[in-house]
Amino acid sequence: MTRIKRGYIARRRRTKIRLFASSFRGAHSRLTRTITQQKIRALVSAHRDRDRKKRDFRRLWITRINAVIREREVSYSYSRLIHDLYKKQLLLNRKILAQIAISNRNCLYMISNEIIKEVDWKESTRII
């Protein structure tokens, strides 16, 4: 029986996987079976951490806003600021508020003071 030469498809698939894992260390970049396992693990971690990154950034923005708000006034907190923003229907998200808090604190103080004045004024007129 004559010898049949295998096609190039399997070799091409393995080289593609090797290119993905070329930066890995040791057997993780040399052995095909180990490379495949590491590729699956890397893709799972990447998928999980994309959601994680969004969560972490939101926590960071909230912390920054809260720190700047509490510097000036002890009684005013982050939660009250966000609540009053929604009441006032101002469209400022947490990312923008955090950038304002870092770059220009006085601007954030002015925003919060205006919100406090209007909300307090509306509440005092309701009571009467």
UniProtKB/TrEMBL annotation:
Q: Can you quote a single GO CC term?
A: chloroplast
Q: What keyword terms does UniProt attach to this protein?
A: Chloroplast, Plastid, Ribonucleoprotein, Ribosomal protein, RNA-binding, rRNA-binding
On the tree of life, the source organism's domain of life is Eukaryota
Do the record's keywords include Nucleotide-binding?
no
Question: What molecular functions are annotated in GO for this chain?
Answer: rRNA binding; structural constituent of ribosome
A Gene Ontology biological process annotation? translation
Q: Where in the cell is it found?
A: Plastid, Chloroplast
Query: Which InterPro entries does the record match to this protein?
Result: Ribosomal_bL20, RIBOSOMAL_L20_CS, Ribosomal_protein_bL20_C
Give the NCBIfam families listed for this entry.
Answer: rplT_bact
Query: What is this protein's function per UniProt?
Result: Binds directly to 23S ribosomal RNA and is necessary for the in vitro assembly process of the 50S ribosomal subunit. It is not involved in the protein synthesizing functions of that subunit.
Please state which protein family the record places this protein in: Belongs to the bacterial ribosomal protein bL20 family.
Specify the protein name: Large ribosomal subunit protein bL20c
Q: Which organism is it from?
A: Datura stramonium (Jimsonweed)
Encoding gene (name): rpl20
